[in-house]
Write a structure and sequence with these properties.
Distance between the termini: 41 Å
Largest sheet: 4 strands, antiparallel
Number of strands: 7
Order of helices and strands: HHEEHHEHHHHHHHHEEEHHHEHH
Structural class: mainly alpha
Shape: flat
Radius of gyration: 26 Å
Number of helices: 17
Strand content: under 5%
Number of domains: 2
């Protein structure tokens, strides 16, 4: 088994090498670096707003706790907020802030991805766990310490959440980065997956290949639908840009305040992309209790003065139902992809068992549509769950799409598209006559 290059600690500048740095210590140092950089990303905008007297309470301890609470929030840690005048976060006027800016969550994820690659280069295959364990322990301690220091009477932080939840995006980033450096999962964990698969039966390999291809097609459908939804979101921003600018002008937050507001909105841009996906699926999304936005009808109550809210389509949407074509089109692309890249072993097995092509072809295609639709629906539900949440207080306790209904709508539409795309694939894949003759000759 080929090891990765071991990283050594320089003794001096003469080129001589000293003792190798312990992997757990290197992991701890990489993690401390990532934690400090991600904290600075939160501190700098707060410091800029403070420098322009943008906070009513500019006490150092208040701003420090705000920075720590923001750092926990971008890692997905829920914060228990107390309503003004309620006295305690556990009272009836309190609420849980769980709406995570996924765009800012990418910062610790990417920092962890970089750290994971560096630790993979410094570790042998059977020693990588030492570096990962040391790094995760340090990051968990950093989160717990931040939660302990930054909690207050107005913002209650569960220390167990602060200890464990920041590890989720950070650990995913480290493992992904280590996998990228290793080149394969087998080299990363020391297990030869190809050899294990070769020991299984032929039927098992066929079944595994079929379900793996269906799962990949579901991911293709999900990614295509999300990309098309992002395109529609960009068009929507372009159409309503004057309304967005009008809200900025009405706020009159100044250059620094406007920049901080823009950064916060960019942090929620991935959330808005998932909202757009739910919108084109037909299930829509909530912007507060009793407010629903969707292509088949929009009913939205009073909203905070956030510029991005001005771009929400409202009024009579006579052709809103046309948006439902987007997930179906993504399903068509997934069905075509499966025809090109996958092998429909279920169709082959069914054709052997039942000698009636008029029956086996439609049934295998429908089963494929169901499987790919289920995968796309599960992925959509996961995205909807990650993107939505609670704004903390008042009507904004319900923001985002409903994971279940988003999954149901998207799975059904993608499944229909897969059937169309897979059935129409042979006509889209027609080859020139010369190539057909070569294939017949073979």
């Amino acid at each position: 088994m080929t090891p990765w290059k071991a990283m050594k600690l320089r003794a001096d500048q003469t080129g001589d090498r000293g003792l190798p740095m312990p992997l757990w210590l290197q992991g701890a140092l990489e993690t401390a670096q990532a934690a400090i950089i991600s904290a600075l990303v939160v501190v700098v905008p707060i410091a800029a707003v403070w420098a322009t007297s943008g906070f009513q309470n500019s006490a150092f301890d208040v701003l420090a706790r705000l920075a720590g609470q923001s750092w926990l929030l971008i890692h997905g840690v829920p914060l228990q907020l107390a309503a003004l005048g309620s006295g305690a976060a556990g009272s009836a006027g309190s609420g849980m802030l769980t709406l995570t800016p996924l765009g800012l969550t990418l910062i610790p994820f990417l920092l962890a991805w970089r750290a994971g690659r560096r630790l993979a280069r410094a570790s042998y295959t059977d020693q990588l766990w030492q570096a990962l364990l040391g790094s995760w322990l340090v990051y968990a301690a950093f989160g717990a310490a931040t939660g302990f220091i930054c909690r207050s009477a107005d913002v209650v932080i569960n220390l167990w959440y602060a200890l464990l939840i920041p590890l989720i995006p950070f650990a995913l980033g480290m493992v992904t980065g280590a996998r990228r450096e290793a080149g394969s999962w087998s080299r990363l964990i020391g297990v030869d997956a190809v050899a294990w698969i070769s020991r299984t039966s032929q039927h098992s390999r066929w079944a595994g290949s079929y379900f793996a291809s269906a799962a990949k097609a579901g991911f293709v459908a999900m990614a295509s639908a999300l990309a098309l939804a992002c395109l529609l979101l960009a068009v929507d921003f372009f159409i309503h840009w004057n309304l967005v600018i009008a809200v900025y002008e009405a706020l009159d937050a100044g250059p620094v305040g406007g920049a901080a507001l823009t950064i916060a909105q960019l942090g929620f841009l991935p959330n808005l992309a998932v909202f757009a996906l739910a919108w084109v699926s037909g299930s829509g999304f909530h912007l507060g209790v009793g407010s629903q936005a969707g292509p088949l009808g929009t009913a939205i109550g009073p909203l905070p003065s956030v510029p991005v809210f001005a771009a929400i389509p409202s009024g009579s949407l006579d052709y809103g139902f046309a948006a439902l074509v987007v997930p179906a089109l993504a399903g068509v692309l997934a069905g075509w992809w499966f025809l090109r890249e996958g092998e429909n072993h279920f169709d082959e097995w069914l054709a052997i068992k039942v000698h009636a092509r008029w029956f086996t072809a439609p049934v295998s295609t429908l089963v494929l549509g169901v499987l790919v639709g289920l995968v796309a629906g599960v992925l959509a539900a996961a995205l909807a769950w990650l993107a939505g949440g609670s704004g903390g207080l008042g009507r904004l306790k319900d923001i985002g799409p409903d994971p279940l209904w988003t999954a149901v709508w998207l799975a059904a539409e993608v499944g229909i598209g897969v059937v169309i795309g897979y059935a129409a694939g042979p006509w889209l894949e027609r080859q020139p006559q010369v190539e057909e003759e070569v294939e017949l000759a073979r």
